[in-house]
Design a protein that fits this description.
The chain is globular. The protein has 268 residues and is α/β, with parallel strands linked by helices. The chain contains 9 helices and 14 strands. The strands form 2 sheets. The protein has a 7-stranded mixed β-sheet with strand order 6-5-4-3-2-1-14.
């Protein structure tokens, strides 16, 4: 069947994504109330009972807000590295031992024919990670909440057919915004969030003939807009000599209040 996915919702107020190959269906993060997650799943004709497990990127509340209630309601295993487990233990509440599964940063795990590879990223959390998913020749990578795209991350997500990549903020909007300077400095730092320009710079190195779409994710509602993000990413790519035709590659939207359409990851 290959890989299909939907970004249920993405932004500074909450994040969750579903990845499936038909035989296995995984939820990445659970940054909304259990009720809201159920609503988002229903919008894509899914129920919590169809989820086989939850992968966690890191312990910040916009990624684990509904984790405990959802996992308990549907008796779901949770996969996270040890430092993330330690950091989120109090937040998620009681989880049965059989559903507390350690997935080390850098580990590769097979869920039937769906292969998942975890990779470390730079963010101010205990041990944050992104994930790449493989089914046959198809590859999907999800990398948000990273201050910069390291060479290690570039290697991990290289040759992806589809990317979900952070474009959190416009630098000037953030600098002029209402946040206190220490918060702005955190966001702009190497352990903060990826700017539109930095996302475009990374894409200029990552775009290959295999990569057909990049979903710009985790946009700040205060310091970004999707049209601005797409324009800045495109300009940054072109400034570095990376030109593309819309028929060959597309920048795609994500939303803070609704899911993206189902997208099938497949080579032509």
């Amino acid at each position: 069947m290959g890989i299909s996915f939907t970004v249920l919702s993405s932004g500074s107020t909450g994040n969750a994504t579903v990845v499936t190959n038909g035989a296995t269906t995984l939820l990445i993060d659970a940054g909304f109330s259990a009720r809201r997650i159920d609503e988002l799943l229903q919008e894509r004709d899914l129920t919590g009972g169809e989820i086989d497990g939850i992968l966690i990127t890191h312990e910040h509340s916009d990624h684990i807000k509904g984790l405990g209630p959802v996992a308990r309601k549907y008796n779901l295993p949770i996969y996270a590295n040890e430092k993330t487990w330690d950091a989120m233990n109090k937040s998620v509440g009681k989880i049965s031992e059989e559903n507390r599964i350690v997935l080390d940063s850098g580990e590769v795990k097979d869920f039937g024919t769906l292969r998942v590879e975890s990779f470390g990223i730079s963010h101010d959390a205990a041990e944050p990670v992104g994930y790449s998913f493989y089914d046959g020749d198809d590859k999907l990578s999800v990398a948000t909440d990273l201050g910069y795209v390291s060479e290690k991350v570039k290697r991990a997500i290289a040759d992806s057919d589809v990317l979900v990549l952070e474009a959190n903020h416009d630098i000037e909007l953030l600098r002029m915004g209402r946040y206190p300077w220490n918060t702005k400095r955190r966001i702009l730092g190497d352990m903060g969030h990826l700017s539109n320009e930095a996302s475009g710079e990374a894409m200029s190195e990552l775009l290959t003939g295999d990569t057909k779409r990049t979903y710009l994710a985790h946009l700040s509602r205060d310091h970004n807009m999707m049209d601005l993000a797409k324009m800045t990413v495109r300009d940054a790519m072109e400034e570095r000599g990376c030109f593309y035709k819309e028929t060959d590659f597309k920048l795609c939207d994500t939303y803070f209040d609704r899911p993206t359409p189902w997208d099938k990851v497949s080579k032509p």
